[in-house]
Amino acid sequence: MSPESEIGVFVNGVLHYFDTTVQQVAECGTPYLALGRSPEVSDYTGMIRISGKRDGVVFFTAPKSMLCVMLMRMQETDMSHDNLCDLVGEIANTLSGNARRDFGRQFSISVPSVVHGRNAVMEYPLNTRAIVIPIEWRTYHARLVVCLN
Amino acid sequence: MNQVLAHRLMVVDDSNVIRRRIERVQDLPNVEFIGAARNGIEALEMQQQLRPTIVTMDLTMPEMDGSECVAALVQRDPEVRILVISALADKLTAIDAIERGASGFLCKPFTDRQLNDALRKLIED
Hints:
With 149 residues, chain A is an alpha+beta fold. Chain A is 36% helix and 29% strand.
């Protein structure tokens, strides 16, 4: 599988999550390389670690406002911190499931973890550049970050 | 008079958002939501108290995972019907769950309709 196809697995996973769960289309913006510094994270971040044939991290990071509206679309009335963590964790869980299905046994994929806050420090593998894929939904902006060596 | 058989639904998932969503959106007329557990250990405790007839089961959970819990629930009550709902979307995971005693498999993420269709199929099969 080419690197472009690998990234496509994650992008399609996120877009499919919006299609099925909030039943509205999200769009993928123009991907770019995060040069010179680590990509910024938003309020809530769901992350998986990948090892094996490739090593690195993949995460979906979104503002609180976006996640709250997603919960509202799901008819959820509880916008607590725990539920926002749950939601971003479920998105990462979907990324993990898609990767297990499409990448096969050459990859080992972690259980998702969630970090909170824009000052969260992410650990990236050495000698890699993160690819940032903007995810646009309604008026909200999230990011999918793929950093694999 | 015909008596409609009521099915008693227990939801097992470590995500509160998913537990509440399944409780909220399941709309089959003959299904009664009776409780939700956050992991396999809680599910086994609740099974004794609540006697569910149908269960939705996540796979990746702390304490006791869903695969282990499926086998334990079916061993205690061979009549219970279990729908595994998981983001682990590969065929081997689904086959493993069926072999341990699950009756159906639904991939996350799912629409409300997909959930209700899967529950209906679980009951009717």
